[in-house]
Amino acid sequence: MEFAVIGVSHKQLALDKRSLFSFTDTQKLEFSSLLLTYGIEQVLILSTCNRSEVYLMYQTDIDFLPSIYLNYFNQAEAPLYVKTGDEAFRHLLKVTCGLESMLIREDQILGQVKQAYDFTCRMSLGGKELSLIFQETLNFVKKMKHKYQQPSISLTHLAVEHLKKVSNLYNQKIMICGAGEIATSFIPYLYDNNELIFSNRNSGKLVKLKQQYPKIKIIPFNQRKILLDQVNILISATASPHLIFNRDDFISSQLIAIDLTIPRDIDKTASIQCIDLDTLNHEVAVNNQLRSKDVEKINSEIDIKIREVRTKLDSIKYDYVIQSLQAKSMQLANQTYEILVNKLSLTARERHILEKTLKASFMQIMKDPIHCVKTNQINDLEVINKLFSLKEDNEE
Questions:
Q1: Do 142 and 166 belong to one domain?
Q2: Which of 65, 107, 299, 396 places its Cα 20 to 30 Å from the Cα of 215?
Q3: Closest CA to 232 of 173, 274, 183, 318
Q4: What's this model's pTM, rounded to 2 decimal places?
Q5: What is the CATH number of the domain that holds 55?
Q6: Phi, psi at residue 103, to the nearest 5°?
Q7: Which structural domain range is residue 328 located in?
Q8: How far apart are CA 130 and CA 121, in angstroms?
Q9: Mind listing the pLDDT tens digit for each residue in 61-92?
Q10: What residue stretches are annotated with the Tetrapyrrole biosynthesis glutamyl-tRNA reductase dimerisation domain (predicted)?
Q11: Span 389-394, mean pLDDT?
Q12: pLDDT digits (tens, 9 = 90+) for 275-310
């Protein structure tokens, strides 16, 4: 079973094009189920503002993946990348370390990968191999963050710094739409000196948030547009698959907005100043120069980690073969026992002795093949599979 990834990211597509390939949670389930019908065995989908990627374990040909991916989003073409084996794992490690992010070594991607992994586990879309890969990845990145420490920074931080250039962040009335990680990440920057008004479809999340930040105000989601002419700053960070603010919703052109979502929450044709991911390109470039000093060291550690995890994945394959050999010996022993019992007139005690003897004998026959697998004397496990018809038995 091999590991692969297919997807698009900010390196291939501009902001407006990336939004065409964004997965909602419902779409993650739908697309994963579609892949399972094509023989893909384990699936994890990572969909963020910077990338839309499908990680999977497979045993069959995967040449069909690009067409399935494009057809699902009703797109004729896109600069998709497909990586397999060690290169797919290298990509995952670099993504989770933040080396492939717009902002190098940013902090939010680790949480996003963990959320994607948790979702896959809850939906029972993973398996032993995929779990090993992602658990090893998450542990590795935590180790790298501790070993190569740097000041914590995120796109939220850069957005606030950009906002300071165009607005006085003191005694402002600010509406924040959303209750997820991005929306709530603005609170530490704005809570003390401003009036924060939150709105979200799921008000239960905001009730819990207010327990932690009692000064925030909460309004129903269907009233968010009514307050637009009463606030100075709008921050929208929902998981909506469509716009939640249209061009005609904005009366005042003095309003300043922040929209870091994919797909967008705010109509980009609205006559307001809107800070989005493209707006932050300059700040990102400056910070990337300062934050890239440890990248080569981390890449070297990634090379070591790939070899380590490859060994662990191989051991899983060996475990499967050993279990199959043991099951095969029991199957042959039981079949032989049934044949002999039907042909011979045996007492209950004799049948018991015969059953134990057959099982011990067939296990002894499998002893040498199992030992060879355990001690890596046989590198090509396909030889064992063919010799003992293991795959055919598993398929039955």
A1: no
A2: 107
A3: 173
A4: 0.70
A5: 3.30.460.30
A6: -100, 110
A7: 323-388
A8: 10
A9: 899 999 999 999 999 889 999 999 999 999 99
A10: 302-390
A11: 54
A12: 998 888 888 888 888 788 889 999 999 999 999 998
Domain boundary (228, 254, 283) is at: 283
Q: How confident is the model at residue 379 (pLDDT cuts 50, 70, 90)?
A: low
pLDDT computed for residue 164 by the predictor: 92
Q: What CA–CA distance (Å, rounded) separates 57 from 4? A: 6
Q: Where are the beta strands (DSSP E) in the chain?
A: 2-9, 42-47, 51-58, 81-84, 173-177, 195-199, 217-218, 233-236, 256-259, 273-275
Annotated binding site: 48-51, 101, 106-108, 112, 178-183
By mean pLDDT, which of 115-124, 140-149, 331-340 is the weakest? 331-340
Query: In this predicted model, which residue has the larger pLDDT, 306 or 326?
Result: 306
Strand, coil or helix: what is 53? strand
pLDDT for the residue numbered 395: 47
Please name which of 371, 342, 337, 374 lies closest in space to residue 357, comparing C-alpha atoms: 337
Q: Does 342 map to a domain? A: yes
- Could you tell me the two tokens for 259? 């929209």
Between CA 271 and CA 59 the distance in angstroms is 52
Length of the chain: 396
Distance between CA atoms of residues 104 and 168, nearest Å: 28
The answer to whether residue 310 sits within a structural domain is no
The annotated binding site for NADP(+) is made up of 178-183
Edge-first strand listing for the sheet containing 51-58: 42-47, 51-58, 2-9, 81-84
Q: For residue 393, is it within any domain?
A: no
Could you list the active site residues? 49
CATH number at residue 252: 3.40.50.720
